[in-house]
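sorry for the late reply, my laptop died twice this morning and i had to redo everyting from scratch. anyway the thing you sent over, i finally got around to it. pasting the sequence first so we're on the same page, its 339 residues, then the predicted structure underneath. double check i copied it right bc i was rushing
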Amino acid sequence: MSTIKDVAALAGISYTTVSHVVNRSRPVSEEARLKVEAAIEQLGYVPSAVARSLKAQATSTIGLLIPNGINPYFAELARGIEDYCERNGFCVILCNSDDDPDKQRNYLRVLQEKRVDGLIVSSVGGDNGLVQGLAAVRTPMVIVDRDLENLTADLIRIDHELGAYLATEHLLALGHRHIACICGPTATSVARMRLAGYRRAMAAANIEVPAQWIKESDFTSPSGHAAAVELLDEGRPSAIFAANDMVGFGVLRAAAERNIRVPGELSVIGFDDIQMSRYVYPALTTVGQSILQLGERAAQVLLRRIAAPGTPVEQWVVAPSMVLRESTAAPSRAFDQFR
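ok and here's the structure:
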C-alpha cells in the first residue's frame, strides 16, 4: 500500500506540500497540486482517515445503534439518517444490537474507540447499563424512537400513545367492541406507551378490557403470529390492534391459516407504516409518520448538536396520522355467532 512519502517521491516535491494538498490545510501552487494529484492517481494512494482525524480532532462519522436490523422500520430509519448525513459530508457506522443489551454496550465502546463525532441511539429496552454508558461519554448524541430514562440528550420520537389511541379509536368508530391488543415487549417504553394508548381509548368508550385480550410480543411477525393464534383460538375478537406492522403481518397470516376473512370477519390495524404494509394482502391499515423523514430529522439534529454542542437539549414528539387501507371494516353481523 502506497504512503504519503511515496507520493512525495514520485511527484518530486516535499512531504509537507503533499500533506497540504491532501488535507487542504494550506494553499499550494497550481503546478505542485497537479503533480501531487497525478502521483496520487498513479499510485492509488488513499489518505489515512485515522491520521487525518487525529490531526483535525474530527472523523466526519457518526455511530448509529439500532436494536433490530431485520425490522424494516429500523432499515427505513437508517436510510433516512444515511441520506441526510451523506448530503452533509458525514459517513454512518451502523451497529445492529440484535435486541441484546450486552452487544449494544459493546458496540457503544467500539464506536467510542472509532472516535465518532456523534451518536444516534435507538436502544434495546431494559438496559440500564446503556444509560450509564451514554451518560459517561461527552460525544454529542440524539435518542430516537425509544426514550431512555435519566439521560439528558436530544430526543426524537413519534407520539406512541396518541398513535395507539387513534388506531383503537378507529376500530371503535367502525363499531368494534371486542378489540384485542398484541403489544410489544413491555421492557421498552414504546410498548408501554402504545399499550397505554389502547387502554385509554377503550376506557373512553367504557369498555372493560379482560386480561386475555392483551398479548405480549417482541415486535416481530413470528411473535405476532403466535399471539394471534392464541387470540383467535381462545375467544375470537372482532378486531386486533397490532403494536407494530410486523406484528400485524403475523396476525394476517394467522387469520389466513384459519380461513378468517380480513376485514370481513376480522379487522387488523398496525403501527409504523413501513413500506411493506402497502403490499401485503390485504394492505394493512396502520398509523404512523414518514420513517425516512424521522431519520433525516434525527441526523439533522445531531449534526446541529455537533456544530453547536452548548445549545439546550430539546425533545421533538411527532404527531402520528391514520393511514387507511384494506384491513379494517365494520364488524360482521355474523360475529356474535362466534362468541
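The domain at 4-47 is CATH 1.10.260.40 (434 Repressor (Amino-terminal Domain)).
thats about all i looked at so far, will dig more tmrw
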